Amino acid sequence: MKLDVIKLDGKKAGSVDLGEDVFGLEPRADILHRVVRWQRNNAQAGTHKVKTRSETSYSTKKIYRQKGTGGARHGDRNAPIFRGGGIYKGPVVRSHGHDLPKKVRKLGLKHALSAKAKAGELVVIDEASSNGKTGALAKQVKDLGWKRALIIDGAEVNADFAKAARNIEGLDVLPSMGANVYDILKRDTLVITKAGVEALEARLK
């Protein structure tokens, strides 16, 4: 599929051929869901923790005699039934991550790129370069109508462009190796440089 290439000032800069096997697939929600869930679960810290009855600081002495009180039988005050006692089956420090086959991860990225292309939310630019001034880049982004955009460059992001973009709300910049399904789907507009297109197609062969 062919797509027009533009510059950051909005002028045309030719066209580019996008591979059908990367940008022309019919998006599948089930694959996208699996990959996003895998990403978010791996990112979850899992540092939540409660104290069990063996970790609370009450005495382990039997609080009153077994029989004759008219009340229920109890041992020490650490039991989960008491206020301040241990928590029964509460959260513990653990990893929430799970495995996902590499083929599914790669396919998920292809479907995410294809979803943006199909929705008309994919823009290809000539190059992501700037003089390092945030104000100038912010004006260009506003003129292009990008409110929530992700820009994917080639192997490396231009240092001046990254410096100019880092304080613009709703604008993210990633190298091609950092491209991922969650960040692509999270933004309204996906912007890829010509170098980024080549790098992504080589990565997803």
Describe, in plain words, how this protein is organized in 3D.
The relative contact order is 0.18. A hairpin with a 5-residue loop joins strand 1 and strand 2. This protein has a six-stranded mixed sheet with strand order 2-1-3-6-4-5. The radius of gyration is 27 Å and the shape is elongated. It has seven helices and six strands; from the N terminus they run E-E-H-H-H-E-H-E-H-E-H-E-H. It is an alpha/beta fold and 205 residues long. The chain folds into two domains: 148 residues, Ribosomal protein L4/L1 (Ribosomal Protein L4, Chain: A, 3-Layer(aba) Sandwich), CATH 3.40.1370; 41 residues, no CATH class. Helix 2 packs across helix 3 and helix 4 crosses helix 5.
List descriptors.
elongated, alpha/beta, single chain, 2 domains, Ribosomal Protein L4, Chain: A, six-stranded mixed sheet, 205 residues
Low-pLDDT runs: none
Write down the overall geometry.
elongated
- Count of helical regions: 7
- Helix percentage range: 25-40%
Structural class: alpha/beta
CATH class type of the largest domain: Alpha Beta
| Count of β-strands | 6
Whole-number count of domains: 2
CATH structural fold name of the largest domain? Ribosomal Protein L4, Chain: A
In round numbers, the mean pLDDT is: 93
Superfamily (CATH H level) name of the largest domain: Ribosomal protein L4/L1
> What gap, in angstroms, lies between the N and C termini?
17 Å
Strand order in the largest sheet: 2-1-3-6-4-5
Q: Can you name the CATH architecture of the largest domain?
A: 3-Layer(aba) Sandwich
- The whole-angstrom Rg is 27 Å
Query: Could you give the order of the helices and strands?
Result: EEHHHEHEHEHEH
Strand content: 5-15%
